[in-house]
Amino acid sequence: MDELKLYTYIAVFGSFAVYFGIAWWARAGSTSEFYVAGGGVTPMQNGMAIGADWMSAASFISMAGLIAFLGYGGSVFLMGWTGGYVLLAMLLAPYMRKHGKFTVPEFISDRYYSKTARIVAVICLIIASLTYIIGQMKGVGVAFSRFLEVEYDNGLYIGMFVVWVYAVLGGMKGITYTQIAQYCVLIFAYTIPAIFISLQLTGNPIPQLGLGSTLADGSGVYLLDKLDTVVTELGFKEYTTDNMGGTLNMFAYTMSLMIGTAGLPHVIMRFFTVPSVKAARQSAGYALVFIALLYTVAPAVGAMARFNLMNTIEPAAGQNLEYAERPQWFKDWEKTGLLKFEDKNGDGKVQYTADKATNEMVKVDRDIMVLANPAIANLPNWVIALVAAGGLAAALSTAAGLLLAISSSISHDLMKGVLTPDLSEKNELLAGRIVMTISIIVAGYLGLNPPGFAAGTVALAFGLAASSIFPALMMGIFAKKMSGTAAVWGMCSGIGVTMLYVFQHKGIMFIPGTSFLGDMGPNWFLGISPNAFGAVGALVNFGVAFAVLKVTGPAPAHIQQMVDNFRTPHGGVTAAHDH
Amino acid sequence: MEGKTTYWQENLRLIFICLAIWFVVSFGLGLLLVEPLNAIRLGGYKLGFWFAQQGSIYTFVGLIFWYTAKMNALDKKYDVEES
After folding, report:
1. Whole-number pLDDT of residue A38
2. Is A480 in CB contact (< 8 Å) with chain B?
3. Which of A208-217, A324-333, A564-573 has the lowest mean pLDDT?
4. Cα atoms in the Cβ-side hemisphere of radius 13 Å centred on B20
5. How far, CA to CA in Å, does A495 sit from each of A132, A199, A210, A537, A566?
6. Are B22 and B60 in contact (CB under 8 A)?
7. I need a labelling partner for B49 at 20 to 30 A (CA). Which of A122, A452, A509, B66 fits?
8. What pLDDT is attached to residue A579?
9. Could you tell me if A133 and A401 are in contact, meaning their C-beta atoms sit under 8 angstroms apart?
10. Given pLDDT bands bounded at 50, 70 and 90, which one contains residue A551?
């Protein structure tokens, strides 16, 4: 066994051992512990757990790669996936914590005094969470197969088993404490290579500052300026100004991601685990600190990875890399098919340009940037091993949070709330565990046989959350008179419009060939891409809800009283997880 | 009830201020005004680009903590703190 493999085994299985230990220590004994960790998590702990919950395989592996190739356009992910926490902290989390229940559909059902509303919310939640999980399961499989040279399928089984142990045993309590450990693993794994690379390129160890510094080669040129020059010379758009699809599209995209983030149930649910309203506000702040640690490093990782890639292929203008002398990482990734070279002009050298006719790097998969980065920069093997453990931590922690959101919505909202209200606590806990086991199997199955539309569905998850859940929750808190009928109409039309728009451009249920308008700029409404349409869906939701409210009349007095109650931290049913 | 209404109004005012700043740093400085701002430099960063990829995120973090502190004070002022 070579050194890299040994280190990788130690990092990956060492971290798994820690997760198991924590799971045993924090196993859940009651429904309150299973759903909300007994409501006793401190804001700092909750912030870390939210960070791990939130930062998925997509944040860890894909985001910096996206930024590397989108440049300025990648800002929509940076602002969108952090700005949502401001909305959570001010518009949703404190009031929902004050109301003191277990799940998001439960809040919606109380506030809108309607089982229909609860069922609509459960459906949105399950679709949003399941689509998300497929991505995590794929991430687990890829990380295992790339780093440990285990078969993709076997990697997935190992991942399923690990999540099953600590999620089913510990419920929210086990998940929370495991996520704290996972946060530590993933943030170290992300920042350490970034620090090394920043130091190499600019002499500044802090990546956030390194990105704005001059190159360490003595030229005195700023890194970003040099990157702009290099990419524009090859015909690519200028890195720092490339605005993806125009300003309006970026605007709508950012807004959709922000309100989608604030409306994702597995994130909101975490705010039910803290002991007070004050702690709910605080934990949103801590969560964003922990998230910002990765999100402010990501643009540096992206730009520096792009810079290193360009520099490897063409160290100086006209002096292209001889294909025969390509570095080891180049060969490794060629094997996976994610990197492809085709010597079009037969000169034995690598040309990488924006022109399709002469470009010889026919495939550079965005997802390899973070994983290949340490190798491109010639970093020591233990750093590469750490990245493997970090990628797995990111995927597993998010999968666990999503599984809990799904199982609680089924066992608590559908079974206990609608179908069999006289379920005892002990049986509900058992039901929760059984549902979670089934969810893991379903998620694993979908990870093994990813539906063709898997890539498109993550965007759909955000679109759904943005156009249905967020507006319903916000109106429930800020529009005292908002009635159940109006909210249900709003939710349905918000989702309806968003799904219709996504399907019309991407195909009905993403089946290729069934789209009735092509998925390209000129066909988009005002130039807004389907991924960015959640914001428009949310506007429709608000509009329809207020229109219906005008016609059908306000919510009854006792509901308005309840709203007054959760608007203030003190009084009523304080800190109650009493059922 | 009088006291409660005012607590809520003060909270709304605070949220309004915070969200105005939230909007200005991200959608304003990072997106709509990015071109003129890019003429100004912050080291190697163009300023508009910096707001979009760094500055907005730092501001978001600051905003939440500022709001939290203000709300804690407000809870005390109106005597609606949790026991």
Report:
1. 76
2. no
3. A564-573
4. 6
5. 17, 47, 43, 7, 27
6. yes
7. B66
8. 43
9. no
10. very high
* Percent of chain A topping pLDDT 70: 92
State how far the Cα of A389 lies from the Cα of A399, in Å rounded to an integer: 15
A128-150: pLDDT as tens digits: 888 788 778 877 777 777 777 77
Burial of A389 (0-12, 13-18, 19+ CB in 10 A): buried
pLDDT of residue A456: 56
- In angstroms, what separates the C-alpha of A228 from chain B's closest C-alpha? 11
Block means of pLDDT (10 residues each) for chain B, 83 residues, are: 73 96 95 92 91 96 96 90 75
Rounded distance between C-alpha atoms, residue B57 and residue A406, angstroms: 30
Chain B residues whose CB is inside 8 A of the A91 CB are 15
Nearest CA in chain B to A90: B15
Question: If you search the block for the tokens 């539906």, which residue do you land on?
Answer: A451
Look up residue A155 and give its two tokens.
């990697």
Tell me what the pLDDT averaged over chain A comes to: 85
Instruction: Find out whether A90 and B65 touch, Cβ atoms under 8 Å.
Output: no
More confident residue, A86 or A328: A86
Per the DSSP assignment, residues forming a β-bridge with A364 are A339
Q: Cβ B58–A296 below 8 Å, yes or no? A: yes
Contact between A64 and A369 (Cβ < 8 Å)? yes
Of B34, B44, B78, which is closest to A222 when you measure between CB atoms?
B44
The SS3 call for residue A26 is coil
Give yes or no for residue A373 having a pLDDT over 90.
no
B-chain residues within 8 Å CB-CB of A281? 64, 67-68, 71
Interface of A with B in 174-233 (CB under 8 A): 208-209, 211-214, 222-225
Strands, E, within B28-77: which ranges? 41-42, 45-46
* SS3 state at A414: helix
User: Are A568 and B30 in contact (CB < 8 Å)?
Assistant: no
Tell me how many residue pairs between chain A and chain B have CB atoms under 8 A apart.
141
B60 exposure class (CB count in 10 Å sphere: 0-12, 13-18, 19+):
buried
Average pLDDT score over residue span A526-531: 70
Dist CA A52 CA A542 (whole Å): 31
- Distance in Å from the first CA to the final CA of chain B: 20
Q: What is the pLDDT of residue A459?
A: 67
Q: Does A561 touch chain B (CB under 8 A)?
A: no
**CA-nearest residue of chain A to B34?**
A241
Per-residue pLDDT at A282: 92
d(CA A270, CA A249): 31
Q: Calculate the CA dihedral of residues A456, A500, A80, A303 and round it to 10 degrees.
A: 40
- The answer to whether the CB atoms of B53 and A214 lie below 8 A apart is no
Average pLDDT over residues A80-93: 94
